[in-house]
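Continuing the batch. This is chain 6 of the set; chains 1 through 5 are on the previous pages. Same settings as before, nothing changed between runs. Recording input and output for traceability.
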Amino acid sequence: MPCVHAKRSRPLGVALVGLGYYSRDLLAPALQATKHCRLAGIVTGTPAKAAEWQRRYGIPDRNVYDYAGFDRIADNTDIDVVYVVLPNHLHKPFTLRAAAAGKHVWCEKPMAMDAAEARAMIDACRQHRVQLAIGYRMQHEPNTQAVMALAKSRPFGRLRHIRAEAGFHGFDGASRDTWRLDAARGGGAMYDMGVYALNAARYTTGAEPVAVTATSSVERPEIFRGVDETMRFRLEFPDGVTAACETSFGRNLNLLRAQCEEGWYELSPFQAYEGVRGQASDGRRFDAVIGATPAQQARQMDADALAILERRPPRVPGEEGWRDMLALDAIFASARAGGRRVEIASA
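Output for chain 6:
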């Protein structure tokens, strides 16, 4: 691992790769509130964007890259971490390039296009001795963490069933060139929103699913051509626990509910940028943090930066994203087979 330690005099320098909505409206503002990392560089294929970001954040010319010249980042000591915020099909190539440049990697979800890509990303980062963390912001959100802890404490007895739903109604007037509508670039509801439901089912059980049945559907074929508009999938966990999950670009969905032997608990909404909250059958509430300060993204990036500085694994390492990709591969296989039960490869 590159020589980075907790007593360095400055926060880690982060370069955002891809300056779309998520970087512009969420990550860059969050990096103004972080303690252990800062916005140090940008990578974009649009010169006008680069100029705008330089004016807004004071980024020097030496820390601005285009995609073709990205590999020169290896020589830049201002930049310690590369955050890959690109369409899904570009996660693997830019993770591999960043690792080869000796930079730690933070990668947005979903980690990759499939489990094989995810494994290659993990192996590359390990080979080059850099950290790899996946941008599952919800696992850094305090109310979500309170629910995750119940998987171990079991205050309502044995877990029986989970319901996890994530989606929104959109794209009625969207341009057809958005990556979310392009299968080759990792589009579709399952990749974009379904991973929230899948990951939630896993962290709520504290276990790995062993099999899945899934069906996909399209209600607006004029918009969704070759990608899923809606995916419904049922995960089977050890000990008979099941999870009924749904994701959609055609419905507003935002619920996580766990049914146990002696009660229940839920978060609704469970994957919003702010306002995550919930309750349980015994009257307890999960509302320790409701507002947006600090933002989930700031919590996530500070935690991941501190893990690098303290030379310990991040809360959400590459292996976490890889396990989701193992399940995603099986979900897509089941949907292609008309809902046939598919066993999930073990990690």
